[in-house]
Amino acid sequence: MLFNSFVFIGIFLPLTLLAFWSAKQDGLRRGVLLASSLFFYGYWYWPYLALLVGLVGIAWLAGLWAERTTSTLPVWFASVTLLGILGYFKYAGFFAELAVDLGAAESDSRRVAQLALPIGISFIVFQALGYVVDVYRRDFSAERRFSVMLLFKAFFPQLIAGPICRAHELIPQLKGRFVFSADRFFSGLAIFAVGLLLKEFFADGLAPMVDKLFAAERMSWTAIEAWTAALGFGAQIYADFWAYSTMALGLARMFGVSIPVNFLLPYFSTSLREFWRRWHITLSQWLRDYLYKPLGGSRNGHFRTVFALMATMLLGGLWHGANYTFIAWGGLHGLVLVIEHLLRKSPVGEEGRLERLLGWAYVFVIVMVSWVFFRAQDIPQAASIVQSMFHGKIGVLSTEVVPILAFSGCLFVLQWPIECLLEKLRAERLGSSVALGVAFWGGVGAVVLGAPAAVPFIYFQF
């Protein structure tokens, strides 16, 4: 059930909101949220509801165990179990293929029993595992009620693709009182509508054109075609994930719940380090707190920092998918982060305008080049495109590339004013009547300007 589908907007969401706010007691409202969230997840493939409940159950039991002991056994139990389940569903086929490529297995080994990937399983596992670690570190008390723990993970606005909410951010809100506020409700509706417009017009408008460009069987690319492929996908995934993060935040607000901002103009970054503080913010924070710092972080010398950065980004790349292209994408980001760490001499803020402009330009180029690996069908295609970006013949502005460049340019120009509007809506500074007007025109714009076919969110596959 896509956020931008008629089933969700026209049936599921209105009925859930009506049932939720019509309920007289907070316990009943929690029940409505839990039932609707489980239905939302089961709508994709209902047998995997048992998997969702099982993963949450493992984290719940491990959390109760971790609170009663100082041993690391509960964390190890949760890590091995949760990551083991994730590893099988997501990587069994990939590692079988890797074994064949390395000559460690026969070609028949490719036929590994690879089940269909449960939607959002990576986010489910990361959030569940983070909860156990937080309890072990005494950052949060273990939740006694399984129903609350299940709602913490299953809460549908953040269930599939984040933000990866921490226990202290979400559980107290889900256990507390739900108080209706017109300003909050209508600001949430407006935020959702802005995200819907971003998805329908920009992301889904670019998707078929970008897909066609990457699907083409080409022996060589012109520089214009290669840069258009990179810029087009860079704009598509930017709009797509910005749209999802915005819609998720708006949905939560309609139920009186606040979830973290997960996307904040990352293409304005002047260093790759800053980029990762703005793109998928909660995933970056999760990797920092639960992987990078335990691996050594930045307080144990340059060698340990370099190791931690590369390991974190390579594993982050593999987290996105079982493909060599994702590993290359993560490795490229890790390498640039290492270089930044080794060259960094002065804190941000002492830079002049020229330095910041050059920093922005270099980050933009690095990110666009890395998106090629993220999107390409395989490493040879990615290498061909990247080589053509810098060494290909210039080419001409064909009818295949002009619309992509036009969509991308429009998004890049409008991103700042759109974010300014969203910031005002999040702060509830516009009032209910203005927010309702934004919601109305955002919805009209999504219907009138939207792409003819709904496209799944890119991050749903992770």
How is the secondary structure organized here?
Blueprint: H1 6-22, H2 26-42, H3 49-67, H4 73-101, H5 121-136, H6 146-154, H7 167-175, H8 182-215, H9 223-254, H10 272-278, H11 281-292, H12 301-320, H13 324-343, H14 353-375, H15 379-391, H16 402-426, H17 431-449
Summarize the structure.
By secondary structure, the protein is mainly alpha-helical. It is built from 17 helices and no strands. 69% of the residues lie in helices and 0% in strands.
Which descriptors apply to this entry?
462 residues, mainly alpha, 69% helix
DSSP summary, beta strand count: 0
**Strand-and-helix sequence, N→C?**
HHHHHHHHHHHHHHHHH
Biggest beta-sheet profile: none
The global form is globular
What's the helical proportion of residues? 55-70%
Q: By helix and strand content, what is the structural category?
A: mainly alpha
Strand content: under 5%
Low-confidence stretches: 345-349
Number of helices: 17
Q: Rg from C-alpha positions?
A: 23 Å
What is the terminal-to-terminal distance? 16 Å
| pLDDT averaged residue by residue | 90
Detailed description of the structure:
This protein has 462 residues and is an all-alpha fold. Among the domains are: 49-178, no CATH class; 183-270 and 351-455, no CATH class. The protein contains 17 helices and no strands. The radius of gyration is 23 Å and the shape is globular. Mean pLDDT is 90; it is low at 345-349.
